[in-house]
Structures are given as structure tokens and as C-alpha cells.
TrEMBL record:
<dbReference type="InterPro" id="IPR013783">
    <property type="entry name" value="Ig-like_fold"/>
</dbReference>
<dbReference type="GO" id="GO:0098552">
    <property type="term" value="C:side of membrane"/>
</dbReference>
<dbReference type="InterPro" id="IPR013320">
    <property type="entry name" value="ConA-like_dom_sf"/>
</dbReference>
<dbReference type="InterPro" id="IPR007110">
    <property type="entry name" value="Ig-like_dom"/>
</dbReference>
<feature type="domain" description="MAM">
    <location>
        <begin position="321"/>
        <end position="496"/>
    </location>
</feature>
<dbReference type="InterPro" id="IPR036179">
    <property type="entry name" value="Ig-like_dom_sf"/>
</dbReference>
<keyword id="KW-0325">Glycoprotein</keyword>
<dbReference type="InterPro" id="IPR051560">
    <property type="entry name" value="MAM_domain-containing"/>
</dbReference>
<keyword id="KW-1003">Cell membrane</keyword>
<keyword id="KW-1015">Disulfide bond</keyword>
<keyword id="KW-0472">Membrane</keyword>
<feature type="domain" description="Ig-like">
    <location>
        <begin position="3"/>
        <end position="94"/>
    </location>
</feature>
<dbReference type="GO" id="GO:0005886">
    <property type="term" value="C:plasma membrane"/>
</dbReference>
<dbReference type="InterPro" id="IPR003599">
    <property type="entry name" value="Ig_sub"/>
</dbReference>
<keyword id="KW-0449">Lipoprotein</keyword>
<protein>
    <submittedName>
        <fullName>MAM domain-containing glycosylphosphatidylinositol anchor protein 2</fullName>
    </submittedName>
</protein>
<keyword id="KW-0393">Immunoglobulin domain</keyword>
Amino acid sequence: VPPNLTVPQEKSPLVTREGDTIELQCQVTGKPKPIILWSRADKEVAMPDGAMQTESYDGILRIVNVSREMTGTYRCQTSQYNGFNVKPREALVQLIVQYLHLTRQNLSVKKNEDVEPLTKADRSSVGWAPSHQVMSFISSGWLTLCSFANESPALPSCLLADPPAVEPTFLEIRQGQGRSITMSCRVLRAYPTRVLTYEWRLGKAYAPEFYYDTYNPLWQNRPRVYSYSLQWTQMNPNAVDRILAYRLGIRQAGQQRWWEQEITVNGNIQKGELITYNLTELIKPEAYEVRLTPITRFGEGDSTIRVIKYSAPVNPHLREFHCGFEDGNICLFTQDDTDNFDWTKQSTATRDTKYTPNTGPNADRTGSKEGFYMYIETSRPRLEGEKARLVSPLFSVAPKNPYGATNTAYCFSFYYHMYGQHIGSLNVYLRLKGQTAIENPLWSSSGNKGQHWNQARVNINPPTSFQLIFEGIRGPGIEGDIAIDDVSIVEGECMKSDQPANNLRSGAVGTLAHIRLIPVIILMSVLSHQR
């Protein structure tokens, strides 16, 4: 069936306002239905998407953020008809974009007095004036930007004259210097049943405000790339016209080129509303500059820029963390630079054949000779009293319930092996974020504990992000190897039912009132059992 192309009667001419979204439509029939090509018919200029022709499969051309330059005649025509030599059908659509035209007129307003008649006023004219100062005179009731600056807050009045209007309408708005204003005017025409409302949101959109306390922003972590959860709020969203989208720009730190895309906004943004957008496919370990610009129908608002940096991820949400030191990066534990020697990752199957007998474990905590654990080697040249310190990744705790009396509780547990006649000490410390110089003692044990693994459990209530530090201290001789395995942190207090009645208690128990919001005594328990 040959194609047929028509324009609905109500679709040409189309009248719209600058900054709106408009749809031009041509109805096409025929089997099979051809693709429609849109182009400008009145001049040789590019279409809104930058191409000379724009394809449409349903006959609709959608233009976002219409500008005055888009006023004109648009041609819709059928494309090549499946390879057959069929003459293209075409139709024309007229688009008229209304926009603000400012003219200066004589207008004076005396505070708390009647308004003098407007001179040389076009029909449906609107004038704005702050107190006694003359301002712009606007034709057609359209206003895209109006700013004023006084030494003190102004009292602008909205003056409307549209013969045969019944009476002008006055509206007073108080606003500070240099800030945006929303002004709304209503005027009664010759027929009282018809009420015309003009509403303008003056000034461009305010800058977004990035939220820097995102809980676990590194939400996806793969070998070569990572993803980042970007969050922000919008400053004074109701002070300007509705935000239609955000223009997101991102570039690698040190590079010149910005990559940009638009983030569409559905509905109105509320003041204080937290907006989230996930940045994906970021290259490790690069840092990126992120620029965010709000867009209203009047154009772009103020931009804001921040830098996001890759950091080794912590346990997501810290609901449950388990580490058996089996992976290559030992669960992101690191060696402390201030100690005397390092902890070593080892399994019974891979240990040195010249290992010191009568000390150290014969298998990991599960009994596997292939399983790994961390230990300190106390053979020469190590000296008595030297320390090896192993530091955990930084754990981000769950946000505190504003109605709760205490911080979230966690059960911290691990297995330790202390066998040999020269065993020194094993200490565990808690370090809070922002307090790197302060280490709170959590647990301590020293001396020979037998040729078996023991478990320790400690309740902790950190008020902020924290790290754990395992400190092994060399004893008086070479038979003093200490090992740890299966470190875990689980949300909630340690189950009392899991602790036997005869559990051992270390001699270094102390009060950690500064870790809670209220003073408490933390009981540090050691579960001992023979494998």
C-alpha cells in the first residue's frame, strides 16, 4: 500500500513557549509503514540533535527545551520505500516559539499609594517595580529573567494592565538583594469568569550541594573498574522554575575533556531531598572530577564540582564481615609502618621446611593444612619485645538511629593460636576515624595457651568508622609464634548462649567509656575449646 502523509489539523501551526517541550506530528499510513525524516523547510540549518535530518518511526519529532531560533517551518517526508522507486510524500508543520521581548516604558510606583497610568502600553502588558524604582516593562505577559539590586530588601509590585481589565492587580513580595523571586499575577478581563494567571520563576537555578557522607559510596567493585554512588541535594528548588534535568560532566583527574550526559528529573524536587545517581565503569585507581548543573526551561543554573577518589573498599554495610585470609589481598588488611616486623600469611602445606618445631599451628582454624592464617615468626633475628602490627580496613558503621540511646553494637570475634614456651603477647586495639593517635585496648592475652585454636569475642559500640589492630609481641625465645584466623564482625551483640560457663577472661580488661555515648564496661571474653 503506497504511503500517505498528513498533518493533524490541531498540530499546525503549533504555538509554544521558549523552554518548553513540544512534539511535532505527521500521521503516516501505508504497508509497510515507512520511516519519517524530519528537516527544516524554511532554511538550511541543523535539527535540534545536530543532524540535518532526524529519523522518526512514529512520525513524532520531540524537541526538548525549545528556543526562539527553532521558530519556523519543518518538513516531514517518507524515507526510501523499502528500496522501491516511490516518490517521497511530504508535509509541512509550522512552529511558533513565543519568547520575552523587553521594552523600556515610563512606570512609577509610589509606596502604599495608587499606581499612575501606564503609558504606551501594549495589550496584555505587565510591569514590575521595586518600591519607587522603575524596572523592566514586559509585553505579552512573558518573563524569563528579571533581576534587581537595592541596598536593602525590596518590595516589588506586580502591575497588570490589559484593557478592558476591571482593575489592576497588585502583589507585594519581600526578598533579599540578589536573590531569585517568584512572582504570580492574576488579572480579571472583560468577562469576570475568565481569570488569567501569570507565573514566573525568576533567576537561574541554584547550585546543587553534594552529599559527602554517603554510606558506602563504592557500591560495585570489580578487578579493573569500580562504581560510585553520587548523592546530592538541590539548594532552594522551589525558588526557581521546576528543574527538568541535570547535566552531569565527568572527567579523569588531570585530563581536559569532559564527558557529559543528562539526568532526567521526574516530578518536583523537594527541599532537602537526597538524589542519587550511580557512576559506573570508573577505572581503578583513578580519581575523577564530577560537575553537576541543574537545567530549567530557562536554561542552565549554577554548577558545582567535586572530586571522587577510589579507595580500597571496606565491608559493604558492615552487616557481616568474615576473613579467613584465603584471598590474595588478605581481606585488605595492611602492615603497620611503625612496627618492627610484619605478620606473615602462611599455611601448613606451604610453610618453610626449616620452621621452628614446638610452636605455631599444624593447620588453620578449620583443621585444613591447605588453609591460610596470619602469624608472626619469632625466630632470629627477632628480639624480645619487638612488635608486628596488622591493621584492618576502615569499617563504615551503620548510621545511628536518631531516636536510639546508643550506637550500633557489633560482635567482633577471631581465633588465635599461642603455643610455645616463649610466647609473648597478643593485643587487639580499636582505632576510631579521625583519632589516629588514640588506640583503645580491646583484648589482650599472653603466655602459652596450648597446641590448639582458641576463640575470642568482644562486644564493641563504635560511634563512627573504625579500624582494628592486631599486635603480636615477641617473647624471650624462638618458640613464640602467634597466629590468628577467621576474623569476623557481625552486627549485634555477641550471643551469650555461645559462651561457655568456664570461658577464660584476659587480664587486660578495662573500661572503654569513650567508645560508647554513655560509660559502660566492655567484657572481653575468650572462648577456649580443644579441637
